[in-house]
Structure formats: structure tokens, C-alpha cells
Amino acid sequence: MTRTPQYSEWLEIALEEARTGRGSGGIPIGAALIGRNGELLGRGHNRRVQDGDPSVHGETAAFKAAGRQRSYSETTMVTTLSPCWYCSGLVRQFGISRVVIGEARTFFGGHEWLAENGVDIVILDDPRCVELMSRFIFDHPELWFEDIGEDGEGGTR
User: Fold this and answer.
1) Are 64 and 57 in contact (CB under 8 A)?
2) Which 8-state DSSP code applies to residue 36?
């Protein structure tokens, strides 16, 4: 799929959310759910640390903020980072048609699996997203490994 100016605009929303998460002591991952006509349905950021709730990822927060929709077909999830397996499952479960990813360098989630299952994947490789996560991982490796379910030595817990 061709990169459109809309993707950059939508990524700005997700980046704003990621920065809000970082500013409140959390993991800087933000997301937005965009409707079939380009309207913002919901936005959110990872709040695992702030809420003490491991289920509040950026994508799940945006999904929840969007409220009930009759259908998620032709919607787009925009996220600053490749979605983890949990969030990839959410995309598949509800039939979200497209995922726009800010970057997949610092974390390679389930986006290939989503593509194999018919979800349109767009990776923007945005340097701001890479810098945001790289800095966070460097400054807070223990929190990062907790977030992705690893022990810091490549193994899962």
C-alpha cells in the first residue's frame, strides 16, 4: 500500500499519546483507531505502569476509547510500535483492516502474522518512533523486558 499524508497525520496522534505515556512515567507506546472515513474513533497509550494493569497497551487503550462500533472492517489501527501478540490478536479478533506502524526496529511484534491473515500492514519506519523507544529501552531496560514478557536475557518468563 502506498504511504499517504494521512498516515503521517494519524501517526502524530499516536506519537502524542506515546509522549504522554512517557511523561507520566509509563512505557512510550501510543495508538489511535481511525474510522473508515478517516475520523478519529479513539486514542490511547500504554498505561501498564500508571494503572498497575498489564492489559492496558496503547492499542487496547485506543480500542477501548473508541467505544462499541457496529463493525471494525475498514478501520485502521495506528501505533508507534509493531503490535505485540496480544494487540495483534485484538486486531484479528475484531477484523481491523489495516495497521499503520511507526517502527518495527526496536520490537518486532505480530505484524507479519497479521499480513499473512489479510491485514494491510504499513510500516512507516519513523525515526522519532525509533528514537523514543530506543531511549526508553536504554534508560529502563527492566521495565521494557517486563512489558514484553522477557527476562532480559532473551527468554520468556
Assistant:
1) no
2) T
Please state, in angstroms and as integers, the Cα–Cα distance from residue 90 to each residue in 5, 123, 143, following that order: 26, 18, 23
d(C-alpha 30, C-alpha 12), whole Å: 10
Cell of 28: 512510550
Polymer length in residues for the chain: 157
Kindly report the pTM of this predicted structure. 0.92
Compute the Cα dihedral for 56, 38, 101, 84 and give only its sign: positive
Task: Provide the strand spans (E) within 1-92.
Answer: 30-34, 40-45, 76-79
Q: Which residues are catalytic?
A: 59
Amino acid identity at 29: I
Q: Are 40 and 34 in contact (CB under 8 A)?
A: yes
> In one letter, which amino acid is 104?
A
Residue 77 per-residue DSSP state: E
Under DSSP, is residue 44 helix (H, G, I), strand (E, B) or coil? strand
Which tens digits make up the pLDDT trace of 121-145?
Answer: 999 999 999 999 999 999 999 999 9
